[in-house]
Amino acid sequence: MAQPPGFVDSIYSSSVCKLHKSLYGLKQAPRAWNERFTNFLPSLGLQTTYADTSLFVKHTESGVVILLLYVDDIIIRMSATTIISEVISALATEFDIKDLGSLHYFLGIQITQTAEGLFLSQHNYVNDLLTKTEMHQSKPCATPCLPHNRLLKDDGTPFDNPALYRSIVGALQYLTFTRLDIAFFVHQVCQFMHCPMKSHYLAIKRILRYLKMTQHYGIQYVKGELELNTFSDVDWAGDPNDRRSTTGFVVFLGTNPISWSSKKQNTVSRSSTEAEYRAIATTATKIDWMKQILAFLQIDISIPSTMFCDNLSAIALTCNPVMHQRTKHIEIDVHFVRERIAKQLLHMEFVSSTKQFVDILTKGLSAPLFHAHCCNLRLRDPPPELEGGC
After folding, report:
1. Cα end-to-end distance, the chain, whole Å
2. pLDDT tens-digit profile of 362-377?
């Protein structure tokens, strides 16, 4: 550290200032602020959950107070509004805060409260992204990718502006928080950020053209049964560059998708059964994590979670106690899943490939099937609003 140029003290030229508080904008400021804020919350009875360090919970006779923290943005939820007022007042005495009222916008996500539930979208974010990339007047397309299309590592000539490529891909990654319909295709273009080709940039432009057509899309959350169900699928050896498989899963709370992923597996699978079983084990860990979160919120999921899979061999392997040479290399995943089935924490069900919603997270699909899966995953336009009513 050194004194700023032009403000060097002639007497104490080798000295520097000691900060008693962190300055906004410094590298250490977010960490210092987070530590200061989280150390104060236990005095209000709010305890962190080990499943998610940004989630704080307080149990009272009236219910549960939930506080979600992201740097300096906070969401507080509670059935009794008086307790929320007490928490906000206590925070105001310690910090300079601003109460923005009911939740309608958080980290670029728009929340619309309807009679049925909540509608989450990133319409403004999509509109800003299209304007930034000069694609707001582009011709829209029905899908973000051609059916069964895969990108090759050395296809064509290098793209002349890698920084632009990385900037757009980073923006698209944030958009997958509410747009699981583009998660697989964003995952595809993310693999070539170190050395993008022109063909990869054309794939990004197709995603943007699809967003132009569906920029109002969001997820509709409605009230329903408190049960966890999942769909797990894999595209076996689908990556032509290294022949690794792509895992896709969606976790539903009732009929609402609450967690999803599209990710390439770490190792090459020698059979479709092995690839499917690795995907099942990955999805099972996500179910365990979701149950931990719900338990902190005093939501008890007593019935076994159902996992839907379209591979009969993988389903049979979850119940077959016989270990043989062909499954020795995935023995840990086998025992991990079987243990949960034996404890009646997980139940496997077969689903036909035509009704496997998670295909949207593992491969490119035809337009009719793609939009059918979007509807099943509760992706749609915002609910209509009446105008001029009294």
Report:
1. 64
2. 988 889 999 988 888 8
70 strand-pairing partners: 73
| Domain spanning 226-350, CATH architecture | 2-Layer Sandwich (3.30)
Per-residue model confidence (pLDDT) at position 323? 55
Token output for 97: 């805060």
Question: Cβ distance 208 to 125 under 8 Å?
Answer: no
Grouping H, G, I as helix, E, B as strand and the rest as coil, residue 304 is coil
Per residue in 22-76, pLDDT tens?
A: 666 777 777 888 888 888 888 888 888 888 888 888 887 777 888 888 877 888 8
The total number of residues shown for the chain amounts to 390
CA distances from residue 145 to 156, 185, 205, 330 in whole angstroms, order as listed: 18, 7, 10, 33
How many Cβ atoms are within 10 Å of 88's Cβ, its own excluded? 13
d(CA 275, CA 265): 8
Residues sharing a CB contact under 8 Å with residue 150, sequence separation 6 or more, in sequence order: 188, 238, 239, 240
- Could you give the dihedral angle defined by the CA atoms of residues 100, 104, 108 and 109, in that order, rounded to the nearest 10 degrees? 150
- Sign of the torsion angle spanned by Cα atoms 89, 90, 95, 100: negative
For residues 375-387, give the mean pLDDT: 76
- Measured from the Cβ of residue 106, the count of other Cβ atoms closer than 10 Å reads 15
Contact yes or no for 278/269 (Cβ under 8 A): yes
Which of 66, 73, 69 shows the shortest CA–CA distance to 38? 69
Domain boundaries, the chain: 39-101, 120-216, 226-350
Helices (H), 95-197: 123-132, 162-175, 183-190
Instruction: Say yes or no to pLDDT of 389 above 60.
Output: no
Instruction: Give me the chain's average pLDDT, please.
Output: 85
Tokens of 109: 């996500």
